[in-house]
């Protein structure tokens, strides 16, 4: 195991029933990087993100986090703490029928943070994603772009070291895309944070990531390792 390794896929097969979506014999996501997952629909980007988050178990092989197998080596209270190290924002996130403030503070409350502190941190996160003034609006009444930003606020308020984003700008307009990209840049500048996000846009990957992971024919290929985020790779 490399000292800088975060996630490791070892002879891992990801799929559903008898269908293989993705195979990775030996692939590593390092600490403190920004990774863009690039590939067409059905190539396995969402499946991989769910597997890294502990929501999809490989049918073969292992996924390791800091050298421990997510599904067998990390159990009991340690498994709970491991999942609390990361947040996953789905392409179509779940929004509760409650205020924006309640939605953003929810993760803090279930982690035992007091109501006053959770509300304070949630307001700061809401401001960071450009939704200040909407704290008491029912989150179901937000626009699609606003709802996506609310989901990201709910993730970043937890200040985890691993942030997983599934097509964070896939269903939003140009204005919301620019805001969300700015948020991702801001989070990526925090020390020790690893961001892994999926996208169809190579240009977006160029703007935000210092690693591009291409999905092709059920395999992973890493491009441009160890370059600073925003580096414009050769076309």
Short description:
With 235 residues, the protein is α/β, with parallel strands linked by helices. 32% of the residues lie in helices and 26% in strands. The strands form two sheets. Strands 6-7-8-3-9-10 form a six-stranded mixed sheet, sandwiched between helices.
Describe the fold and architecture.
Mean pLDDT is about 90; it is low at about 230-235. The chain has about 240 residues and is of the alpha/beta class. A hairpin with a 2-residue loop joins strand 4 and strand 5. The chain has a six-stranded mixed beta sheet, sandwiched between helices. The protein has helices at about 45-50, 75-85, 100-110, 115-130, 145-155, 175-190, 200-210, and strands spanning about 5-15, 20-30, 35-40, 60-65, 70, 85-90, 160-165, 195-200, 210-215, 220-225. Helix 3 packs across helix 4 and helix 5 runs parallel beside helix 6. It is about 30% helix and about 25% strand.
Supply database-style keywords.
235 residues; alpha/beta; Rossmann fold; six-stranded mixed beta sheet; four-stranded antiparallel beta sheet; 7 helices; 10 strands; globular; disordered C terminus
Note the gap between the termini.
32 Å
Strand percentage lies at: 25-35%
Q: Name the helix and strand elements from N-terminus to C-terminus, one letter apiece.
A: EEEHEEHEHHHEHEHEE
Whole-angstrom Rg: 18 Å
Q: Biggest sheet, open or closed, and with what strands and sense?
A: 6 strands, mixed
CATH-derived topology: Rossmann fold
Count of alpha and pi helical runs: 7
Unreliable residue runs: 228-235
Give me the count of strands. 10
Strand order of the largest sheet: 6-7-8-3-9-10
- Mean pLDDT over the full residue set: 88
Task: Give the tally of structural domains.
Answer: 1
Query: Helix share of residues?
Result: 25-40%
The assigned CATH architecture is 3-Layer(aba) Sandwich
Shape descriptor reads globular
Given helix and strand content, the structural type is alpha/beta
Give the CATH superfamily: P-loop containing nucleotide triphosphate hydrolases
